[in-house]
Amino acid sequence: MTGPITKALADFRKEKNASGWTKLPFFQDGSADRVAEKVDAVVAAGGHVLPPPEAVFTSITLTPLDRVKVVVLGQDPYPTPGDSHGLAFSYRGARRLPASLRTILAEMAADLDAPMPKSGDLTKWAKQGVLLINTALTVEAGKSGAHMKFGWSDLVDQAIAVISAHQPAVVFLLWGGPARKRAALVDQTKHLVIEAGHPSPLNRLNDFKGTRPFSRANAWLVEKGLEPIDWQLDA
């Protein structure tokens, strides 16, 4: 019997927006199928996997390869049911915004002299070409980081490399140690890398606030003749 993540993978491969991504070795050499099988084994054993299967590949479904203008890397989905919907940092829960997202949106508001958004749903960004991808696309409820070693990171590394190679001008917003290590995968003669500390309140250096990544990204995109991102979320 096909498990839910294997089925979600098959459905993703049929998506019209998926064609650029599915040419990655991750989807060609069996890696994606093996990762899906690992996650399905967790489900079969009674584990509660997040986000819902139909949302696992949301990041690369909403943002096709040929439309990527900005890349934001997260770690793994929120481990509370109902919070994550497949986009890094994005939140659809009913409680207060998660701390890291609140820090990100507060910086956006201060950077752009805009109101602090009430919504934490970043779908609007994704549809404009902001790839919001986590290093692991799945997690277990209540077990942050549980799937970080399942093999999802190969997808992220390959995605960054292919974006760097094939897109003309992309801004990479690399926040926190694991994300910043991936700067080595980016051709910085043609792309802009903006590094900063992680927006998490656990970051004792507090070296995210005041870095103004949103205005800097937009200024560079305009300089390259590209449409800037409308970062404001509320209508």
UniProtKB/TrEMBL annotation:
Its main location: cytoplasm. Its EC number is 3.2.2.27. Keywords: Cytoplasm, DNA damage, DNA repair, Hydrolase. One of its GO terms (cellular component) is cytoplasm. Residues 61-221 form the Uracil-DNA glycosylase-like domain. CDD domains: UDG-F1-like. It is found in: Cytoplasm. The active site is at D76 (proton acceptor). GO terms for biological process: base-excision repair, AP site formation via deaminated base removal. It is an enzyme of class 3 (hydrolase). InterPro entries: UDG_fam1 (IPR002043), Ura-DNA_Glyclase_AS (IPR018085), Uracil-DNA_glycosylase-like (IPR005122), Uracil-DNA_glycosylase-like_sf (IPR036895). It catalyses: Hydrolyzes single-stranded DNA or mismatched double-stranded DNA and polynucleotides, releasing free uracil. GO terms for molecular function: uracil DNA N-glycosylase activity. Belongs to the uracil-DNA glycosylase (UDG) superfamily. UNG family. Excises uracil residues from the DNA which can arise as a result of misincorporation of dUMP residues by DNA polymerase or due to deamination of cytosine. This is Uracil-DNA glycosylase. The gene is ung.
